[in-house]
Amino acid sequence: MSFDVSRIRADFPALQDGVAYFDGPGGTQVPRQVAEAIAAAMCSGVSNRGTTTAAERRADRIVTGARQALADLLGCDPRGVVLTRSATQAAYDVARALARGWAAGDEVVVTRLDHDSNVRPWIQAAESAGAVVRWAGFDRESGELGVDAVREQLSDRTRLVAVTGASNILGTRPDLPAIADAVHAVGALLYVDGVHLAAHTPVDVTALGADFFSCSPYKFLGPHHGVVVADPGRWEGLHPDKLLASSDQVPERFELGTLPYEFLAGTEAAVDYLAGLASTAPDRRTRLLESLRAVEQHEEALFGKLLAGLAGIPGVRLYGAPARRTPTAYFSVAGVPGADVYQRLAERKVNAPASHFYALEASRWLGLGDTGAIRAGLAPYSNDEDVERLLAGVAEVAG
Ligand SMILES: Cc1ncc(COP(=O)(O)O)c(C=O)c1O
Hints:
- The chain has 14 helices and 13 strands.
- The protein is α/β, with parallel strands linked by helices.
- It has 2 domains: 5-30 and 286-398, Alpha-Beta Complex (Aspartate Aminotransferase, domain 1), CATH 3.90.1150.10; 37-273, Aspartate Aminotransferase, domain 2 (3-Layer(aba) Sandwich).
């Protein structure tokens, strides 16, 4: 079964509005199948999880179904899948729980490349424990975060390293297995922000060497909530603040309050949808790997065209050129503020916003301050016509 972008686009009711959406890195559009799964959950009898009534069992099936789907997506144990409000909340919760075991003088490493949600929670947790924060910078020209840049910050006092799986502005994909080896060699843990990565490529958290890996289904065709996964044994050793009445089992120990059952039904549907994009293999993990490889190829081909087109427009400056990257372009147009470019593209029904997109340190590191630049990111539903419309719009604004 091949990847057919026209067939895929027909599944997205939002695309009927004729907008070319390049803001997938901020949140993708959603296929009808996901919306229907959410509606079905809300139109069925659903109570709190339990075993007595059909409504309780339905809620339970939704939660276990979402955990299994996410485990298939990320190649991990469903008992290690913690469901959260957002990836940001996940980082804060894990940071607070881990910081209980840190002492004054311990060290935490963050990077200039990361989204602020994988920076600030660690800085604030380090402050609360009296730990020292060390920064790994990235190369401003290439946008690469080298293994050595992280290694230089490690010591026998390092407790945790927080690194992105892919930059949400430059697309940079650091060499995570090599970074994990360096981090583990000093006895520290690696927290990977996989929010931007998981939307574009097959993931195997064990092969990546991540001790924790977070992502957000709304970046890969699903609803708005977050996820963080780790080995169940790792979760067993952590004790977050929780209510006395709530479960102390793993992973429930980390899930505060009642879970968003309808969204979780949507997340399972989103994973099933991704799995079916280009594969009919009998098991879902294989379907996911095959389909996400097809997504990667589709996006890479389009991205080549997008980058070459942008590079050929006089006045356009592209930021970063990492060797391994997601299909995410970050650029400015000489003499035209990013907000104006965004506005003028939007008038042509091309959505490509301008911002630092919360990669605040990266934007400052690149000399773009707190304003940032324009981001054009691809999604599985992006097509040639979208790219041509973006290029024509940028050429007009630049000219
Ligand atoms: C790389 C990256 N990390 C983290 C986040 C934050 O995710 P959430 O909204 O689920 O907290 C985003 C959102 O844009 C992101 O792009």
